[in-house]
Amino acid sequence: GNSVTQMEGPVTLSEEAFLTINCTYTATGYPSLFWYVQYPGEGLQLLLKATKADDKGSNKGFEATYRKETTSFHLEKGSVQVSDSAVYFCALSDRIGSSASKIIFGSGTRLSIRP
Amino acid sequence: DVKVTQSSRYLVKRTGEKVFLECVQDMDHENMFWYRQDPGLGLRLIYFSYDVKMKEKGDIPEGYSVSREKKERFSLILESASTNQTSMYLCASSPALEDNEQFFGPGTRLTVL
Question: What residues of chain B lie within 8 A of the CB of A21, using their CB?
């Protein structure tokens, strides 16, 4: 079945460092890909998404490109801030009927940014 | 502002108790979902519903049931709580469109003693 594998954390970086969180997927067909973020004490919220090959999703300085040839959707940010400390989940959509999709999540990567 | 609310942020119950977790969304979404979140396991789908009174099992339905009597409300029921059901429970909703994002509530941290 469809699945998502992302790098294990925790990841600790200094402020203004470059961030990469790796994510690869296994899927039949052409799912949409997502990055969700969970800030401390909150539910998940969508960070960015890409719906087809070579699409680039971007938001709040984060970017990820849908790479079909390598089945990857790595998350990057050029200069992280303390406020980016959170848990990041890579995910893909999985059709479950004519009008619904479920989302399959990776295990999450905890990111901590030192001032 | 779109919103998914859950009835409790923290809940402590005893083994064998019947537990109700409530979720309400105000976005008129057709689809609603219940997940549990455990360290190292990410989110796992328990049940989902794509219409009122409709429900489908997710990946880990054992020990749980659900109810959806109204479009905006989706309840998760633990018939007889056990300690291995101690977890963070997250509710989500999405519109009835392909590949749409899901909107999440803040979560309920349930402890079963």
Answer: none
pLDDT at B1: 66
Who contacts A69 (Cβ-Cβ below 8 Å, separation ≥6)? none
Q: Is A107's CB within 8 Å of B90's CB?
A: no
Q: Is the pLDDT of residue B98 over 80?
A: no
Nearest to A33 by CA among A51, A45, A55: A51
Are B46 and B60 contacting, i.e. CB atoms less than 8 angstroms apart? Answer: yes
Q: Return the ∠ at Cα B37 (arms to A102 and A17), rounded to 5°.
A: 95
Q: Do the chains contact at B43 and A93, CB–CB below 8 Å?
A: no
Nearest to A97 among B50, B99, B107 (CB): B50
Minimum distance, in Å, between the CA of residue A91 and any CA atom of chain B: 10
CB B48 within 8 A of CB A102: yes
Quick check: A41 pLDDT over 90?
no
What is the DSSP code string of chain B? ---EEES-SEEEE-TT--EEEEEEESS--SEEEEEEEETTTEEEEEEEESSTT--EE-S--TTEEEEEEETTEEEEEESS--GGG-EEEEEEEE-SSTTPPPEE---EEEEE-
